């Protein structure tokens, strides 16, 4: 295959494309688990024991090593030309990824770093663009066709949190760029999914306020306060309380350019 790229992905159903861009269907669940386990540690050697945990949890068969060798041999046939990326490295195996653009998790990390760097520099258009590209990498639920509880435990929460953080910084960029009205629907959904995430609630309050919907912004505050008190026994934190005071005072520093409270 030389240096011609392939395409590999875990941000949704398992994605494997060969050097010609053709999708490779891997019908056997155990083979998909092996590919996912290797991709989660791309370019590193994954031992037979680690693969056994991914495949069978705590109940591997007595001949697990031989069974894994059989699965890998069959997987090589299924992968066709792309099998050149599946390497045998004692005491296990590895999948070779040659450039970040080949693998969605590597591309995600690259875009996440670019987003953070742009945010530190206050370059909010770049933040919006990089975070949007990163969010578009998701094709569904990560590892959704990988029936391995061990792999889901090791990766699912991390990827869910990464997506949430990217969504929040993308919204932050849009608000700072004065595009509040375009993120309200997304913010309402996130606020509903994460009722105790005070930063999301504060973002929704700000977006409502800057769109002239002060009453709805205040409703968000009282709703989240009630949830925090009833479920956790705590009052809202500093960020959301300050946002409440800003809105009460109609603080012009929180308004988009050229807009003033009526």
What this model shows, in words?
The protein is mainly alpha-helical and 262 residues long. It is 56% helix and 6% strand. Strands 3-5-4 form a three-stranded antiparallel beta sheet. The longest helix is centred in the middle third of the chain and has 28 residues, at 149-176. The N and C termini lie far apart (65 Å).
SSE map:
Layout: E1 7-9, E2 15-17, H1 29-39, E3 46-47, H2 48-56, H3 64-79, E4 86-89, E5 92-95, H4 104-120, H5 124-135, H6 149-176, H7 184-193, H8 198-210, H9 214-232, H10 238-248
Question: Describe the biggest sheet?
Answer: 3 strands, antiparallel
Count all strands and give the number: 5
Oligomer: single chain
Query: What is the second-level CATH architecture of the domain at 7-101?
Result: Orthogonal Bundle
Order of helices and strands: EEHEHHEEHHHHHHH
Global morphology: elongated
* Overall mean pLDDT: 91
Give the low-pLDDT segments.
Answer: 256-262
CATH superfamily of the domain at 7-101: Winged helix-like DNA-binding domain superfamily/Winged helix DNA-binding domain
How much strand content do the residues show? 5-15%
Rg: 23 Å
Q: Can you tag this structure with a few keywords?
A:
elongated, 10 helices, Arc Repressor Mutant, subunit A, 56% helix, 262 residues, mainly alpha, two-stranded antiparallel sheet, Serine Threonine Protein Phosphatase 5, Tetratricopeptide repeat
Can you give me a brief rundown of this structure?
The chain is mainly alpha-helical.
């Amino acid at each position: 295959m030389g240096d011609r790229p392939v395409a590999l992905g875990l941000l949704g159903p398992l994605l494997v494309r060969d050097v010609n861009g053709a999708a490779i269907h891997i019908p056997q669940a155990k083979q998909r688990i092996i590919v996912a386990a290797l991709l989660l540690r791309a370019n590193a050697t994954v031992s037979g024991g680690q693969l056994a945990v991914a495949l069978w949890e705590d109940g591997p068969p007595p001949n697990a090593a031989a069974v894994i060798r059989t699965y890998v041999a069959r997987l090589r046939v299924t992968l066709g030309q792309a099998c050149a990326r599946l390497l045998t490295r004692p005491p296990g195996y590895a999948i070779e990824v040659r450039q970040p653009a080949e693998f969605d998790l590597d591309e995600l990390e690259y875009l996440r770093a670019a987003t953070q760097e742009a945010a530190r520099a206050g370059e909010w258009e770049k933040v919006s663009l990089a975070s949007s590209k990163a969010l578009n990498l998701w094709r569904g639920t990560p590892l959704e066709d990988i029936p391995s509880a061990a792999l889901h435990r090791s990766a699912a929460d991390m990827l869910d949190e990464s997506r949430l953080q990217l969504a929040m910084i993308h919204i932050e960029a849009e608000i700072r760029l004065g595009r509040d009205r375009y993120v309200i629907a997304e913010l309402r959904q996130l606020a509903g999914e994460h009722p105790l995430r005070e930063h999301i609630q504060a973002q929704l309050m700000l977006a409502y306020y800057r769109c002239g919907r002060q009453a709805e912004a205040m409703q968000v505050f009282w709703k989240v306060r009630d949830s925090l008190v009833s479920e956790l026994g705590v009052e809202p934190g500093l960020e959301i309380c300050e946002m409440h005071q800003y809105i009460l005072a109609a603080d012009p520093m929180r308004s988009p350019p050229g807009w003033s409270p009526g």
